[in-house]
Amino acid sequence: MLFKAPFSTCAYPKTYTKHLCIGDEVEVGPGTYSTVLLFTHANAEATSDMILVASQYGRIAASPSHSLMVNGELAPASSIIVGDRITAASNGTLQEEPMNFVKVDKMSGLYNPQTTSRTILVHYRSRAAMLASTYATAIHPAAAQALDAP
Fold this sequence. Notes:
- The protein is mainly beta.
- The protein has a single domain (8-139), classed as Endonuclease - Pi-scei, Chain A, domain 1, CATH 2.170.16.
- The chain has one helix spanning 141-148, and strands at 8-9, 15-16, 25-29, 32-54, 59-62, 66-70, 73-76, 85-90, 93-98, 101-115, 119-123, 129-136.
- The strands form two sheets. Strands 1, 2, 6, 7, 8, 9, 11 and 12 form an eight-stranded antiparallel beta sheet that branches.
């Protein structure tokens, strides 16, 4: 998922994505875990435009083409506007939170761990974890799922 490097996933114990390894378990929902299968991006040196979105309790930084659950549907991060709702995990439940901040910023580090569930919870210097897809618009989700088939 093309994330800025210094964010932590809900791995146990919480860890920075740059420290995740294939086979690690990461939280994908309250109390639900999924295995990291591979990385489509893992580059500490990369510098790129990232979309930083925030709610009252959580925030996430993702590449413009990265897919997030926006208003109940997968949509690229570049499409998010203030007032859109993104799914977050807080107090043991998933809930949609309205975004009150959206900004494009140059950031370093680019990581996209792929999980068996194709989702991941992400903490980016916040209390709540934001639910993110591991998809980007470069590959349609149906095509990405077909690549996983035996």
